[in-house]
Design goal:
The protein has 190 residues and is mainly α. 77% of the residues lie in helices and 0% in strands. It folds into 2 domains: 46 residues, Homeodomain-like (Arc Repressor Mutant, subunit A, Orthogonal Bundle), CATH 1.10.10.60; 139 residues, Orthogonal Bundle (Tetracycline Repressor, domain 2), CATH 1.10.357. Helix 1 crosses helix 2 and helix 1 crosses helix 4.
C-alpha cells in the first residue's frame, strides 16, 4: 500500500513537473493531483527536492529497464547492440520531450542529475560490455578490449543526447542512428 501511494505521488509529480516545470509546481499542486492532503505527502517526501530526486531516479530506472528488455528480446549480439542504442536514444528523447519545461531549470539540479546519470552511465557500460563480449565469443565481433569499446560507445551516446535530442528537433534521429549503428557494427564485425 505504501509503495502504491509513493507511486501515485511520483506519477503526479512527473505529470506536473513535465507540464509546468519544477519551480512553478508546488507541493500543494502535487498533493491535489495525487488526491491526498499536503501533510500526507510530507510523510512520504519531506520536500519538493526529495520528490524531484525520486522522479529522476524512477525515470532513469525505467530507461534502463526498457533497454534491458529490448536487448533480451534479441538473439544475436549485433541485434542486441542495435536494440540497446535505439531503445536508449528513443527513451531519452521521450524524456526530453516530456520534461521540456525543465530545460531552463536543469542547472539548478545539475549536481544531483549528473550523479544519477553517472550511475546510469556505468550500468550502460556494463550492458554494452556484456553484449560486445558475447559477440566476441560468438565470433561475430573482433574487439581486443570490450570494456574500453563499451565505454566509448556509452560516452558517444551520452555526448549525443543534448545536441540531438534537445537542440536538433529537426533531425531525423532514427535515420542518423541507423547510419551510426551501421558504421559501428562495421567497425567491430569480424
Amino acid at each position: 500500500m505504501e509503495d502504491d501511494v509513493q507511486a501515485r505521488i511520483i506519477g503526479a509529480a512527473k505529470t506536473l513537473f513535465g507540464r509546468f516545470g519544477f519551480k512553478k509546481t508546488s507541493l500543494t499542486d502535487i498533493a491535489t493531483e495525487a488526491r491526498m492532503g499536503k501533510s500526507s505527502l510530507y510523510h512520504y517526501f519531506p520536500s519538493k527536492e526529495e520528490l524531484f530526486r525520486a522522479v529522476v531516479l524512477e525515470e532513469m530506472e525505467t530507461l534502463s529497464q526498457q533497454a534491458r528488455e529490448a536487448v533480451e528480446k534479441e538473439d544475436r549480439p549485433e541485434a542486441k547492440l542495435k536494440a540497446f542504442v535505439l531503445t536508449r536514444m528513443r527513451a531519452t528523447r521521450e524524456l526530453a520531450n516530456a520534461y521540456a519545461t525543465l530545460h531552463e531549470e536543469y542547472l539548478d539540479h545539475l549536481g544531483f542529475v549528473e550523479r544519477v546519470r553517472e550511475q546510469s552511465f556505468q550500468a550502460e557500460v556494463e550492458m554494452v560490455t556484456s553484449i560486445l563480449e558475447e559477440g566476441v565469443q560468438a565470433g561475430e565481433f573482433e574487439i581486443t578490449d570490450s570494456g574500453l569499446a563499451a565505454y566509448a560507445i556509452a560516452l558517444a551516446l551520452k555526448g549525443l543526447e543534448y545536441p540531438w535530442l534537445v537542440k536538433s528537433k529537426e533531425r531525423n534521429i532514427e535515420h542518423d542512428l541507423d547510419l551510426l549503428l551501421g558504421m559501428l557494427i562495421k567497425a567491430v564485425r569480424r
